[in-house]
Structure formats: structure tokens, C-alpha cells
Amino acid sequence: MDTIPSEILTYILSDLDAPLAPYAGVCRAFQYVIETRTFRQIQIIHGTLPSVRRFDAIFGDKRRRYLLRELEFNIALPNKLKHDRKRPLKYLRDRAFTLALNRLFMCLEKWNCIPEGLERPPSFTLRIRCTTPDVDYGAVHNNHKHLQFDELQSLPTLECVEKLRIQHLQIFPRDMALICGALPCLRDLRWDLGNVPRRLGDLRADLRNSMATALLQTDFSRLETLHIQWIDHDPVNHDWRPETYVDAHGRDHLSIGVNRIMKLPHLKKLYLDGCFILSPEVFDMNCEDVPKSLECLGIESCLVTPAGG
Question: How far, in Å, CA of 207 to CA of 188, rounded?
Fold first, then answer.
């Protein structure tokens, strides 16, 4: 049986009823083909400690870790207060987010150890999602509903994550930078987030400044693809004042941050979707500044006059 080509084994298994796990004991060849299909895509539901421990137990076998291609990590966040809760909802959401991400990174930190005979750790795509409905700004008393780490200054370094997808989860840019900073092998990042309503001007400015800092200071040296979708449900501002987007010296740090990203040495594709309000500083570069690796550049922006037209 161990000499049968994997294509034939795959064909045989396609006629068997699920689950296939009981057939893994037939021979080593069956075990390999079944585990390759079983462990290619794994989902951790709710991000609780028991679910992370189950995942850790399954992949205690280091050989199995190299079969994983995509890990979906779902986080359950509180979206309303219980009657006996005295903590604000904002605190409870940030706390749940912090605990879930930290336990996942602590679990995956073990994967940095390279088994004897191999040259590199496993690599896979990490998807981080939220499984509970979003909340409005009234529920968090007009504070940031974007998730922030609660008293967490750093995360364990993970060398196994090459692609990161953030979907259906609003993460504050400063804290997103902390996540990316713990992923030194990150090559591909897709990040979706929403903007703050215009009525909360201070929060809106704070979010933009944090995005600028994240683009300016995060180590993206290995990044090849960056796709940020910044959704703004209030893009038109009839009281638009350019001075609110620049510092005392007239410089727009978000545009400078995008300019820095465009000059990354290994960048191949850059997509900025949504409503990016940028200044001409974003293209302040000469031909030598543009990396030879750059293949695609897409920036979706909103053209407005100083009067808001």
C-alpha cells in the first residue's frame, strides 16, 4: 500500500464516506493523504482557551504543522453589557481581543522551532475574523470601537505567518502595527477597516494619525503585497479644512507614510481602496526611489476642493 501513488489513493478516498479519519490507520500512505486534506485548512472557533488548546494538541506533531496552509482564527467579542457587568463595553471588547490574540500567538510561538532535517519553519495564511455582530459608537459611549490591546506592549514573534487577512474586525492602526511587527516573515497583508463618523471629529483625526504612524514605523521590509480597504461611510465633508490634515510645517504624515510604503524594497503590489485623502507628497520621489519589484499600484481617493465640492 505504501508504494501506491498518492493520486490513486486520493481517487480511492474520494469514494469513501466522511469522516476519513478512521481510514488513516490503514497504512502510512493513507494517513499522509488524509492528513494532507484534513489539516490544510483549520478553523479555530471563538478563540477561547479550550479551542486553542485543542488546536495545540492536534499540531503537537511537528510534521503536521507543515501540512497547514490556512488558519482561520475567529474571535467572539461581547456586543452588549450584561446587567451584572460594571465595566464599560469598550473595556470588555478590548480585553477579550487582547486575551484571544495573545493566547494564539503564544501557541504559535512554538512553531518557530525547526525540526531536524528541515531548513525553515512552517508557513501559512492567518485569517483573523470576528464572529459576533459589530456595535455602534453609542454602545461604547462615543469612544473608539476599533479594538485596542489592553495593557499589552508586545506579542510573541511568529516566523510561520506569511500572509495575514483581517476581515470583519475593526483593529486600531497602532495595534495593527504591533501585530505586524511580530510577524517578521510577513509577505502579504490584506487589512479591512472602517472610518469614524464625521460627527466624532477628534476620533476621526486620531484614527488617521494612527494610520500614518503605522505606515511610517512598522517594519514591512519583506512585504510584497499590501491591500488596505479603508471604508468611509461619510466621505464628503462640507466643512473640509486642509489644515486639519497637516502638521505645523504643512506636512501630511499619512501621505508621507504611503510614500514610504511605495519605496519598500520587495513591494510588488499596493492597493489602497476606500477614501484616502492624500496630498501630492505621496508621489514625492524620483525614479530611483521606486523599487524595480513594483508591478501594480492602485490608490482609490476622493477628489474634493477646499470648499468640499
Answer: 23
Q: Which residue reads 524620483 in cell numbers?
A: 286
pLDDT by residue (tens digit) across 14-68? 655 555 555 555 566 556 666 677 788 999 988 899 999 999 998 988 888 998 9
Contact criterion met (CB below 8 Å) for 167 and 192? yes
**What digits encode the pLDDT tens for the residues 161-198?**
999 999 889 999 999 999 999 999 999 999 999 988 88
Average pLDDT over residues 287-291: 77
Task: Tell me the three cell numbers of residue 103.
Answer: 493566547
Taking the C-alpha atoms of residue 102 and residue 154, their distance in angstroms, rounded to an integer, is: 9
Helix (H, G, I), strand (E, B) or coil at 304: coil
First to last CA, the chain: 72
Determine contact, residues 126/152, Cβ cutoff 8 Å: no
pLDDT of residue 186: 97
Q: Are 241 and 277 contacting, i.e. CB atoms less than 8 angstroms apart? A: no
**Reported pTM:** 0.85
Strands 70-75 and 161-167 come out as: unpaired
CA 150 to chain centre: 18
DSSP string computed for 166-199:
EES--B-HHHHHHHHHT-TT--EEEEEEEPPPTT
Mean pLDDT of the chain: 84
Burial class of 306 by CB neighbour count within 10 A (0 to 12, 13 to 18, 19+): exposed
3-state SS record for 86-145? CCCHHHHHHHHHHHHHHHHHHHHHHHHCCCCCCCCCCCEEEEEEECCCCCCCCCCCCCCC
